[in-house]
Amino acid sequence: MIKLLIVDDEQIEREGMQAILEKTYPEHIIQQAKNGKRAIQMATEFQPDVIFMDIKMPGMNGLEAVEQISANHPHIKFIMVTAYDTFDYMRHAIKLGVKDYLLKPSKASDIVVTVGKVLKQIEEERKTLALSQYQQSALQKTLSLVETDVVTQLLFDHVHEVHVDMLVEMLDIRSTNEMFVMLVLIPTGSEHEYSKVKEKVRQTKSGWVGALYGNQLPIIVFRQPDKSYRSQATSLAREILSLSHAQHGTGWFIGVGEVCYSLEHIRQSYQDALVATMDTTLPMKYRFYKDISLSGDSSHGQIAPHQKKEFLDQIRLGNWNYIRLNVLNILQVYENDETELLQAQQRMLEVLWIVSRVLSEVGVETDSPLYPSQASDYRQLRLETIQILERMRQSYVNHYEKLESDTIQQIKQYIIDHSHEDISLDALAKKVGLSPIYISKMFKEKLGINYIDFLTECRIEKAKKLMCDPEKSIKEITFEVGYHDPNYFSKVFKKMVAVSPNKYRKTLLGI
Fold it and tell me: Where in this chain does the record put each HTH araC/xylS-type domain (predicted)?
């Protein structure tokens, strides 16, 4: 619907113009103003799309009114209506951006033609704006999906550098020299807070948010130049915990990993953050890994720093001999140090809890590791620890036995068929009932390629085929294969194929 405003000091002129417009454009809204001053007021109140402005009016003339209205409402278009066909008037009007003019008296046919041209321009501008807004929205949605997948693969696998480069550039990350991981534990029943956490991080323009798996939400945070690592992490942790008064709830906790200086080493910071969340009963609902002593002190020590990454990786790989040996070695340290039995049992519970947490990453659900009672001696504690580990091992075995042998082919075919859509690891995980991390791991092991690289290859191969059609533009192909920004598509294509889309097409068509 278009709004039209007729400005003229002569009522008969206004009424005549309105009659002509209402007959031709009955669906549009038309109002009148009797002078330039009133037109300025109505420009704000009525918000017209087009103003028919008489030039010669008592008080403020039409050109003066146009100048003031344009300053505050640049989208409004003007058609001047005048009995003076002089060059000076028209030159001034053109400078003010006036679209056309009508001479008094005007024929109805002239008015209809002139208005029709301006209305067509408005319609085209609206379509362009709507398309631009749609493309921008689609691009942000795609980037959000890519962001989630890239975080998952950076922390648990290797991701193709092209996607990291694109994210850094398009998500406007301020600094990539120093980075660290924050692991947010979101309690059951509060999963809806995920979107709030993601928006909070996005507002800072300093981090990427991964997928929510189980109750764990990893965030890769890039240190901002104007803040120290600790102050930035503390500030973000408090903001996240403030959402829905999370700091007063049970189950919310944030572990903060150590700073690293390359995305290639970001997994180490994640391992730090995971260990920092092993005791969620602390009064302060966030903790830095650096604040935990993991040397060999029996009052704190579970896993030495140089062993920690290997230990967590072996849990994911299901190396139960290794897991059992290391857990029992930790228990032996407590016994040798004559640690008070109740304290040792609590420390062992934290170790088992970490094992359970890592298993949940790959979709293995286990019962919460709990001792049936307070151990009476180290022999009983050792026996019950072995029993808990065995139950976890059995859950791991059962989980993988339940997976159908064709699951990977099912996922692969789904990606091939839907590569032009906005699909993500999280969406795939829900479709087949697996965790995003497990799908990423399974892709790497079974196909020797990462999920996001496979999706990219599918899209690029489809783009190559479409380029055989000279009638299709690169922009059309961009959208058809699943991208929402031609520049982004071109960069990915060149990274994968080593030449730009235009150069590839010229070679293909022999141009």
Answer: 409-507
